[in-house]
Amino acid sequence: MEILLPLIIGLLLGAAAGYLLRQQLSAKWASSAESQANKLLEEAKTKERELLLEAKDKALETIEGAKREEGQRRKEIDEQRQRLEKRETLFDQKLLDLEKKSSDLIKEKERIDKSREEIVEIKKQQLAKLERVAALTQEEAKTLLLSYTESQVKEDVMNRVRTIEKAAVEEYETKARSLVAGAIERYASSQVAELTTTTVALPSEDMKGRIIGREGRNIKAIELQTGTEIIVDETPLAITVSGFSLIRRHVAKRALERLIADGRIQPAKIEEAVEEAKKEIAVEMKKAGEDALYQMGITGIDPKLVQILGRLKFRTSYGQNVLQHSLEVAQIATVLAQEIGGNVAICKKGGLFHDIGKAVDHDVPGTHLEIGYQILKKFNFPEEVAYHTISHHEDRPKTLEGILTKVADAISASRPGARKDSYDQYVKRLEELEALANSFEGVEKTYAIQAGREIRVFVTPSKIDDYAALKLAQECARKISSELQFPGEIKVTVIRDNRFVEYAR
């Protein structure tokens, strides 16, 4: 016990001393934190005062700037107001001047009207005096004078007119015959009437069977792709391509020649050969147009128009080749223009392009006159040249060059053997047949074959199903029977063909 008591007392004293020491340290720390907080508060107040001062300075600067801008705007507004007031003053002055001039004009008009009335009255008085002196009215005097003059010179005038007319007619007829004969002699060309068939030579008789193919699939594919009829008969080493379109026949012939040379005749090769033949024909068209322009000495023509001109090589009118006819018209019109003093350049271009509408009249609605005029205007030809597409069918052309083109057109068409009416009527009937079939919705393309005894109508599979194809064939047949005139009967075949192509690579 004696040992524990001093220990307990020591512990209590140590605890008390520790508590007092802790209180002192806590008081010291609190005092230090308070002084630091006060210091921070003072710094914040100082910074606040500085920021307030800066804000006041900026606000004053902003107010001063706004006042300056407002003063500038007021100054500009005052200047604009002064200008407007000045303009308004000038306008009022001009309005007053116009009113004054208008008033002066009205007074001048009244004065002129009054003077006119006075002159008319004076004229009436003078005529009345003359009538009293002559004892005749104005109409009576005029009639008397004309009757006297007519009786004196009537016989002489009639004799003179007859003499002049007779001499003029004889002279002009002689000169016209001489000019026309000279023009024809200076451009004499042979005439060959176009036929509706084309012959393809074969290397052997076995080739006929290969062209027909198994169950006729090859010949059907060729006819389908070209829109022509392939005639395989007893003619040795030859087959015949029949069709009213010269382009289709040439495409078929080129394709057959390519297939015969290749030796592999099958539907895929046929399609490829037809596409190549179409490209060759397009190149040939452009070459034909370029040759025609070179022959006439014409330059500066748009390449697209050159292509259209070349299409005339594969277009006929009454059996006459239209490109050859156009060259003849241009040459004859040029010669006539040289003889009588016409514009040679206009006659050259007008004569060459006068039938340009026939190159696309199968595809574009309207007469070849309207189509040709629109084509030349589209390619910026002057009016005096474009007019030739119309003048050659007018009774009285408006220009001398238009008359010369009309005369040259008549000369070229009237050459012996140049034209055949039956051929053109046949072509027109087939064109009407194809146009009628094309008028139905969903039709992609049509071909009239077998001299118009059959028409094949190709439809778009996505638009026309099998039932609709049947109805289309029936409606097409009914429309042909009711609207067209034709001998015998026409077979309508509607073809709906789905084709799917993919390439393995």
Q: Would you give an account of this structure?
A:
There is one protein chain. This protein is mainly α and 505 residues long. It folds into five domains: 44 residues; 51 residues; 98 residues, Ribosomal Protein S8, Chain: A, domain 1 (2-Layer Sandwich), CATH 3.30.1370; 123 residues, Hypothetical protein af1432 (Orthogonal Bundle), CATH 1.10.3210.10; 73 residues, GMP Synthetase, Chain A, domain 3, CATH 3.30.300.20. Helix content is 69%, strand content 7%. The strands form three sheets. A three-stranded antiparallel β-sheet has the order 1-3-2, covered by helices on one side. It has a three-stranded mixed β-sheet with strand order 6-7-8, covered by helices on one side. Strand 6 and strand 7 form a beta hairpin. The N and C termini lie far apart (112 Å). The relative contact order is 0.05. The model has no long low-confidence stretch (mean pLDDT 82).
What is the topological layout?
Layout: H1 4-134, H2 138-186, E1 197-201, H3 206-212, H4 217-226, E2 229-231, E3 238-242, H5 246-262, H6 267-296, H7 303-311, E4 316-317, E5 320-321, H8 322-340, H9 344-352, H10 368-378, H11 383-386, H12 388-391, H13 400-413, H14 421-438, E6 443-449, E7 454-459, H15 466-483, E8 491-496
Parallel strand pairs: 7-8
Antiparallel strand pairs: 1-3, 2-3, 4-5, 6-7
Helix pairs in contact: 2-8, 4-6, 5-6, 6-7, 8-9, 8-13, 9-13
